[in-house]
Specification:
The chain folds into 3 domains: 86 residues, Methane Monooxygenase Hydroxylase, Chain G, domain 1 (Up-down Bundle); 129 residues, Ubiquitin Conjugating Enzyme (Roll); 108 residues, no CATH class. It contains 6 helices and 21 strands. A 4-stranded antiparallel sheet has the order 1-2-5-6, with helices on one face. The longest helix is centred in the first third of the chain and has 53 residues. The radius of gyration is 38 Å and the shape is flat.
Length: 337
């Protein structure tokens, strides 16, 4: 399929999608106003019931209708606002086939290699390598899915895909401060992007997305650039640079200073989860240095063990020996007496 025929095919697909979108927009208006009409009818009915009940001195019935009328009237501002918002939404003129072919020509002139994926109905361009505040993020592919254009005012019909990902240290899904899971956070550009797509300004659309990718908004990133590199603490998630990151050889993970310490025996770094306290001196020790008392089963450090027996057991043994000696001495004294 030659280039022009491919462009004409895509242009026709876009025209169909935009026509369906326009149809859906106009279809929303009767749906919104119908609900409002039904509520106004309810107001009229309850008003008539109040009048009839009052004429017959049916005051209990009049009170019930009055309560229903109040509820119906309280719903009206909400329904009117929604109907007005639906009517205020602009319904743009559908572009012509000639307009879209001109857009494709301009797109190729500005971005060079434009891919028209006929099988999947996708138009895509590749940006140059993006760098923000000396942080290299690599190239991104912007894919416009033609079959999703119909609902462009409700969901983004495009994806932003990192070709050579340099994700944030804390999340592999965030490949750009404003891109997570291939979805761009459009921010203030949302309305302009939707308008460009609805009007068939395909080249403007790609330019807007590329512009957002080349801009860093420190007020609303998924991950700030200041935390982009480094290593996340396995425990609390804090991003540490190489100098403030500590490796625990027991669990093979990196930790921040607050979530790590060191073994008082071997002086190796150990995370708080892998470290344990000696049950005699309460010093922090790693699992490689901990030993178990052969008598009581306490877990202790090497300094609190002698011949496999902990200090507590040794003291207890010594007390028992002294008590035995005392008893024997007293017995000898009594015998001698």
């Amino acid at each position: 399929m030659n280039a022009l025929r491919k462009q004409i095919r895509f242009a026709n697909q876009i025209l169909k999608a935009l026509s369906r979108q326009h149809h859906n927009r106009y279809d929303e208006i009767p749906a919104k106003t119908q609900t409002l009409t039904e509520k106004l009818h309810e107001v009229s009915v309850e008003t008539g019931r109040i009048q009839k009940a009052n004429d017959h001195h049916w005051f209990y019935a009049a009170a019930k209708s009055k309560a229903r009328l109040e509820r119906a009237l309280s719903d009206l501002p909400h329904l009117i606002r929604h109907a007005k918002e639906t009517l205020a939404r602009p319904v743009n003129k559908v572009p012509t086939l000639r307009d879209l072919i001109a857009e494709f020509t301009q797109l190729e002139a500005e971005f060079g290699d434009v891919v028209f994926d006929v099988e999947n109905s996708i138009i895509s361009i590749t940006t140059e390598s993006i760098e923000l505040d000396d942080t290299c993020l690599g190239e991104f592919k912007i894919e416009l899915h033609i079959d999703k254009l119909t609902e462009s005012h409700r969901m983004a019909p495009y994806y932003v895909i990192a070709l050579d990902p340099h994700p944030a240290a804390s999340s592999s899904d965030v490949t750009h401060p404003h891109v997570s899971n291939d979805i761009l956070c459009e921010g203030d550009g949302h309305t302009a992007i939707c308008m460009a797509l609805e009007q068939g300004r395909i080249c403007d659309f790609f330019n807007m997305i590329e512009s957002i990718l080349n801009t860093y908004n420190p007020d609303s990133p998924y991950v700030p650039l200041s935390e982009w590199t480094g290593r996340p603490c396995y425990d609390c998630g804090y991003i540490c640079d190489n100098e403030s990151s500590y490796y625990c050889s027991c669990c093979d993970q990196d930790f921040c200073e607050s979530c790590s310490s060191y073994c008082r025996m071997c002086e190796e770094t150990v995370c708080l989860g892998c470290g344990s306290q000696c049950e005699c001196c309460e010093s922090l020790i790693c699992k490689h240095c901990v030993q178990q008392c052969s008598e009581c089963g306490r877990y202790c450090c090497d300094q609190c063990l002698e011949n496999g027996i902990c200090n507590f057991c040794q003291e207890e043994r010594q007390e028992n020996e002294e008590e035995t000696e005392t008893i024997e001495s007293e017995n000898e004294y009594r015998t001698a007496g």
